[in-house]
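Researcher: I'd like a structural prediction for the single chain below. Treat it as a standalone chain; there are no partners to consider.
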Amino acid sequence: MLTLTNVSKDYYLGKEKIPILKDINLSIEQGEFIAIVGPSGCGKTTLLNLISGMDTVSGGSIEFNGVHIEKNKDKQWSAWRKCKVGYIFQNFNLIEFMTAQQNVELVLQANGMGKKQRRRKAYELLKKVGLGERTKHLPSQLSGGQKQRVAIARALANDPNILLADEPTGAMDSAVSQETMALLQSLNEKEHVTIIMVTHDEKLANQAGRKIEMLDGKIVSDEQLLEKKESVTKESAEKKSLPLTEFAIALKNMCTKKKRTLLTSIGTSIGIAGVLLVCGIGSGAKSRLMEEFDTIVNRQIVDVVETDVKLDETRKAQLLEDDRILDVYENNTPSVLCQYQDRVSSGLVNAIGPLEHAKDYWEDRLLYGTVPSGDDSAEAIITLTMAEKLAEGEDVQSILNQEVEMGFLADSQTTLSTVATRTVKIVGIAGKAFLGVTDIIHVPYLLAEEVVGESLQDPSYQSSVYCVTVGKDTDGAAVKDMLNEMGLEASIDTEALGSIGMVVDLIVAVIMLIAGISLIVSGIMIALVTYMGVTERIREIGILRAIGMSAKSIKKIFLTEGGIVGFLAGIIGVLGSTFFGSVINQVIRSVYPDLHFTLYQVTMKHILFCILFSTCIGSNFWG
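Model: Treating it as a single chain, here is the predicted structure.
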């Protein structure tokens, strides 16, 4: 069955070669019970490790049923241990936070056996070794002999061809050692399992069917103690792991360390919450700004500022010959103070262009009332916010068709302005104050031109700022480019909106970058916890390797654990940011009730991104 030919094993201490095994030749048949004895350091355990594939040969060959296995890759050795080999350790090597049944089930789970089936088989194995009533006990609740029985049941879980036992009675007294030996003999006789046992106890070795003595890395004697039994064939079925085996093992490991998992997740979630808060606040601020600007943006208007090139009557006439251009008019924007009865309000003027082309636009934006009746009429459209102030508790529509005293003051860098007063009828109400602060009073452009001239005490005053109205289906950007080519300075409000959005996005990105530093700290914290966990779990990793899990599978377990920590951190971070975001929104509503403003706004896309990002951070750092 198993043949070792000229097998050697060397270790190196620096450049110094240290031979451990020298030209081992050994043939083992199925169903044999072999005891290997010899002084410490003679190579007994190393020989077991070479047979199990836990270590690699330096020279020679190992054959199993005529197939060379000494050059197996890690994945092939893992399959060999999973299907053909069971391993019993001197110090039991049970996982302390798992019950006796869970320790046995671990092998079955690694082999992909279903939950119900592995529970039943684990119980049967524990019953076979005399621990049917101890299945729910932790290792700390078992005696030394009982622990070794659990280890034997675990080693038998994969129905191995070969059972390797490294000093299985070394940590027991003589009575318990004899019980363990009797159990191994029974398994050898009834299950036809090949047992290779390393021991220092000559008395126990003499009870085996064959005794091999080693000295200085060589076999010095090979004695058949009992009559050689007829060799039997024992086949072990190939075993494949279920797709979620590593996930299930990782989840079970983490459930046993709930406090550490939760604390690590909470620590990592701080960075996620910070990033999501910044993202939500930035998104809310940008949304609010865009909404506010949209209320005052007329997409049919191109703003023009004179340079050395002036918009005289000749150029205006030339522009109006262009089919794309409907109107050219001065854009005067004085500040204004309004008084109605004993109520006062203030704001800025916005000039309404020629009603021939502007009427439809303003009718679409009105909440109540109508547009002014003429381009030079003393009529105005005010914001809902100003209407509420002037109506003072009454229905805002009560201010419609009321005459309000207005004082206009032009902004000038060179002339001392005076207040130009007019009695203006309120004919319409549209929108709210810009950002809840600045009220806009819309008056016909000729009235705005008239009051600015009067305020500057210059009846012939002409503004250097103009508005060019284009058709609804006209490309405003193309008209803007044409005006710029003429030497004028032209712009459109949609470009300003885009620029503002970019600035907000840039500010948010910078703050998110700063907040992202906490994510790096979180990742480092996960890495530290992982390093501590790996060093604490060296024995557990060794057990997993011994029961047939590959290095890749074990890495998947740690990756999965890290991913779970990251996922939990993402969930906690989202919940935390949602809570604090709600508090921020509530404070704003309480302090500024008129704003009707939701500052913290996140989308499902933001939430999913943060959870996915956190999960990736966790799994990458743990990996």
